[in-house]
Design goal:
The chain has 196 residues and is mainly β. It has a single domain, classed as Porin (Beta Barrel), CATH 2.40.160. 7% of the residues lie in helices and 64% in strands. The protein has a ten-stranded antiparallel barrel with strand order 1-2-3-4-5-6-7-8-9-10. β1 and β2 form a beta hairpin. It is globular. It starts with a helix and ends with a strand.
């Protein structure tokens, strides 16, 4: 758990240390102004490894969907199915809004509902509130960070995650990220993203 958090922190620090686009070494490390805008319409499919507190670990697949409805308002949906020490599945849907606060960097607010179920802990509904950021480090590399406030039937908890998306082509990107919760749960994931 500490190793994953340390690795993601090092990646985030090194990404913002500088970019090949800064001609003046004293200039701020920003992507060039002609980078394409951050996309909120995409589908992502990938592999996920979970450590579910005292229940054990699980491996499987996840699907994330996002679609712009109007301007910066978007819909999001997700599904995760894993198996191992514990069989786990979760589904969620919600709305988000992106607020640009500097060029190529958005503050993103999300809210929605999710349902999770495991063969060892049963099912649980929750409402979530999630503030975060998405920022271009270069035209081909995006950094994201988000926190979640989970309101469930039994308790309220916090979690947070960070990651990077590298654009292989204008429409296809590779996502590497992870998250950790205050209850000891954590996960790492790798996905392939397709921007519409």
């Amino acid at each position: 758990m500490k190793t994953l958090a340390s690795l993601l922190l090092i990646m985030a620090s090194s990404a913002f240390a500088g970019t090949p686009y800064a001609k003046n070494p004293k200039a701020p490390a920003l992507p060039p102004p002609d980078c394409p805008p951050i996309s909120y319409s995409y589908a992502e499919l990938g592999y996920i490894h979970q450590q579910l507190d005292h229940l054990g670990h699980a491996d499987g697949a996840f699907l994330d969907l996002s679609h712009t409805l109007v301007d910066k308002l978007f819909w999001e949906g997700s599904a995760t199915i894993t198996g191992g020490d514990v069989d786990f599945q979760s589904y969620g849907t919600g709305l988000g809004y992106a607020i640009p606060f500097v060029k190529h960097c958005d503050f993103v607010a999300r809210t929605g509902w999710s349902y999770s179920d495991s063969n060892r802990a049963g099912g649980e509904h929750e409402w979530y509130l999630s503030p975060g950021i998405r920022a271009l480090v270069t035209c081909d590399l995006e950094f994201y960070a988000k926190a979640y406030y989970h309101v469930s039937e039994d308790e309220n908890t916090w979690s947070g995650g960070v990651g990077f998306v590298y654009a292989v082509t204008p429409n296809v990107g590779l996502d590497l990220g992870g998250a950790i919760g205050e209850d000891g749960d954590w996960h790492a994931q790798f996905g392939i993203r397709y921007n519409f």
